[in-house]
Amino acid sequence: MEPRVLAATSPEAVAWEPRQLAAAEHPPVAEDGPEDGLPPPCRPRLLRDDKSQTPPSVELHVVEMTFVDASDQTADVVSFFSAVADGDVAKVEALLQLPMNPDVSAWGGTPLMRAAAVNQTGVAQLLLEAGAQLDFCDSRGHTPLMDAAGAWLCRAAMVQLLLDAGAQRDLRNSQGRTALMLASHRGHAPVVRLLLEAGAQKDLRDNDGQTALMLATEWGHDQARRLLQ
């Protein structure tokens, strides 16, 4: 008997050849992802009890699992954060499909915050596709945008990604500082420019009464200062 697909959740799944499904540990994936090569937000998987090749008489059930409705109890959280920090997009995707909660919290932050802090834009894009909270605040009041803007090294590409995704520009941390203030303090002129172009308010004051301009001036960051004047 020919193997046949009994149920499928997408047109792509219906289009798979039954013989391909019978022979493959993982069925083929439709080439409908973003142009940058990142994986689409869903991945099909063929479910069976063992790793052996499925006999041709077996009826196949195709199930498409999404990244949503995930649980933080189904995978090693330490491995997840490690893969995020390493920029291992394939491993992060595999863990998300266990499924793994994209907002699982560890060490006071989320995977997206970790990706933002270490400038892993590919992983950050994947986490956003998986439904990660864009404006999650940690115990310091920091958001992913703040972590990217205030990192030791300039993270302009990450800041642009988060702004394009709709990150709130003027949220404040526990010190009353915004992403613009944090970038100004570090002297990251490209980030300051991006935030200003996105509409960040430059005249807000932190808990000590300092503005972004004051911080840039105090720390001798002339390029950032000129942008803020």
Write down the secondary-structure element order.
Answer: HHEEHHHHHHHHHH
Number of beta-strand segments: 2
CATH architecture of the domain at 134-228: Alpha Horseshoe
Structural class: mainly alpha
Look at the structure and give the CATH class of the domain at 134-228.
Mainly Alpha
Poorly predicted runs are 1-14, 24-58, 64-72
- Supply the number of helical segments: 12
Strand order of the largest sheet: 1-2
Relevant CATH superfamily of the domain at 134-228: Ankyrin repeat-containing domain
| Approximate helicity band | 40-55%
CATH topology of the domain at 134-228: Serine Threonine Protein Phosphatase 5, Tetratricopeptide repeat
Write the layout of secondary structure elements.
Layout: H1 11-15, H2 18-23, E1 42-46, E2 62-66, H3 77-86, H4 89-96, H5 111-118, H6 121-129, H7 144-149, H8 156-164, H9 179-186, H10 189-197, H11 212-218, H12 222-228
Helix pairs in contact: 3-5, 5-6, 8-10, 9-10, 9-11, 10-12, 11-12
